Every structure is written in C-alpha cells, then in structure tokens.
Amino acid sequence: MKKINVGKKVMAIALAAAMAVGATACQGSPAAAASAQETGTLQRVLKDRKLKVGCILSFPPFGYKSEDGTPMGYDVDIINELANSLGVEVEIIEVTADARIPSLETGKVDVVFGNFTRTLERAQKIDFTEPYVVAGERLLVKTGSGIQSVEDLTGKKVAVTKVPPMPSLWGN
User: How many CB atoms lie within 10 A of CB 159?
Assistant: First the structure.
C-alpha cells in the first residue's frame, strides 16, 4: 500500500471512534442490543481482530467490483484505512441501499460505508458519522435555452452520463 497523508489516517481514526458509538447504537433485536451494550462493537472488533463492513458495490467510483470481483473504490479505500488503523482484518460485505440498516440491526455488519442521507427516520435507528463526501446534482443546459427548472424539460430529449468504474484512488 502506498503511504498516505496524516489527514486520511486521522479520518480513519475518527471513523473508528464514531463506529464505537454509532454501530452500537443500532436498535436491533433485544439480544443484539444487550450484546452491544455489554461489550460494544468496537471492543468486540478489536478483541476478534475482524471488522465486518457493509458497502454498496454498485455505485462507482465510490464502491464497485473489479473484473475479478474484488471490491474497489473510494469507500473501499477508506474501509481499508480504517481496518489498518485498528490493526484488524476486514471483511467487506456487499449490501444494497435497502439492506444497510437491517444489516446493522441484525449484526451482519459492524458498520456501513456508503452514500447515506441523514433522515429523522434513519436517525431513530442508527447513528451517523460526519460525512467524508458531500455531493449534489446539477442540471446543465445551454445558455439561452429557457430551461430554468426540471419542469421545463417536459417533452424534451434529455441525455445523462454514466460513470464507468475507476481504479482505486490510492493504488491499492
């Protein structure tokens, strides 16, 4: 692995600290909740030397699979940095958007990395870390087109782009 700057290591440590609080805050089954309260997710991960991470692998460049099925992308790079900072083995478990919270609640994963909008409904079930990526979408139109909003596109042809998979950002 290539050497990375201190800022990324600090991010990994911050994510580990958030995982200690956030992942244990899931309100799953009573047995899972009791187990999390007794030992804490971070303490168990450190004791077992294994971190189970849920990751959406259908959202390049953040998460995707290489041709041989290896998880790749920015989220995967951050996951690996977190595991390295904790000195534990990592198991990346592919999850869908709908399966993220249930995977946490049932203990299938210890933490989830991926595009995850904070909502009141979700916040009642899980805790969130500070975002490491903030993204948005924009509508690009030719000057003078008269298009001011999405509603102005009714009846018009629209083109969209699809981002192809990218190599790992840190050369992993």
Answer: 5
Whole-model pTM: value is 0.62
Measuring CA to CA, which residue among 165, 172, 135 is closest to residue 61?
165
User: What digits encode the pLDDT tens for the residues 13-64?
Assistant: 445 544 543 443 444 444 555 554 556 899 999 999 999 999 999 989 999 9
Contact 54, 113 (CB under 8 A): yes
Which residues, other chains included, contact 45 with Cβ-Cβ below 8 Å and sequence gap of 6+? Answer: 19, 51, 86, 88, 110
Pair 25, 126: CB distance under 8 Å: yes
Give the model's pLDDT for residue 62.
92
The span from the CA of 19 to the CA of 60, in Å, is 24
What is the residue extent of each domain of the chain? 6-137
User: CATH code for 6-137?
Assistant: 3.40.190.10
Place of tokens 């994510």: 15
